[in-house]
Amino acid sequence: MERFIQNHQFNAIKRHTETVQKTYNTIADRKVIEAVKYSAETHVKELFPVLAEEQWLLLEPLFARKSKIEYEEALSAVAAFVLPFPDVTEAGLKKLFPKVKKLKAPELAAVNFAALTYLGWVDGGSSKLYIVYEHAARLVGVEARLTPTGSKGVCSLCSRHAEVGLVTAVSKARSASNPDYYKAVGNYMCVDSTACNKQITDLSYLERFIGEIVD
């Protein structure tokens, strides 16, 4: 069986099945347990446009009552079918950001590409956040300005309460109020992209953000 799970889908699977396991351990009412299990199974199935029988057989054990060790083993089996982020090199990153003369690329050898929805890193010297994402079947790069808030808030990408910064980038669209200027796109996002990648379960806002800038 080929890999078929994207990183954000794996995060969602983990979140829903952890809820099921917690319910087994804290709730005695069988009807409540069955309701929680059914809801989790439905949400997980809806993550995939088509889910083959053998693919569901891989996921199904996560919904059964298990010890912590048994659950972790089942989750590891599922993790083996997560699609890795496309291969990137430092030279490839420089091609994605041709206008950045001295691009400070991340230490790629330390990146876990099996747990990425997007590759993001901060250049503290220039207060820039760089994002690499596969959009419309191609890798694209977005250079954005990061303004730290110094406090926690809700990230627009992963919906997690964490340390966030205001991320703004210039799109290719002209401003409606002043056609001489390009439209700025921005929102609050996690300062720690690695942590964000471990929590993101939905691509809606990320797709919209990237699309407004590169399309």
Overall description:
The structure is a single chain. 37% of the residues lie in helices and 25% in strands. It has helices at 7-26, 30-45, 53-59, 68-79, 90-96, 193-199, 204-214, and strands spanning 119-123, 128-135, 138-154, 161-174, 182-190. The protein is of the alpha+beta class. It has a five-stranded antiparallel β-sheet, with helices on one face. The protein has two domains: 7-79, Up-down Bundle (Monooxygenase), CATH 1.20.1280; 90-214, no CATH class. The radius of gyration is 20 Å and the shape is elongated. It is built from seven helices and five strands; from the N terminus they run H-H-H-H-H-E-E-E-E-E-H-H. Helix 1 (7-26) runs antiparallel to helix 2.
In short:
This protein has 215 residues and is an alpha+beta fold. Helices cover 37% and strands 25% of the residues.
- What is the approximate shape? elongated
Q: Note the gap between the termini.
A: 35 Å
Overall SS class: alpha+beta
Task: Please outline the major beta sheet.
Answer: 5 strands, antiparallel
What is the helix tally? 7
Order of helices and strands: HHHHHEEEEEHH
Q: How big a fraction of the residues is strand?
A: 15-25%
The level of helicity is 25-40%
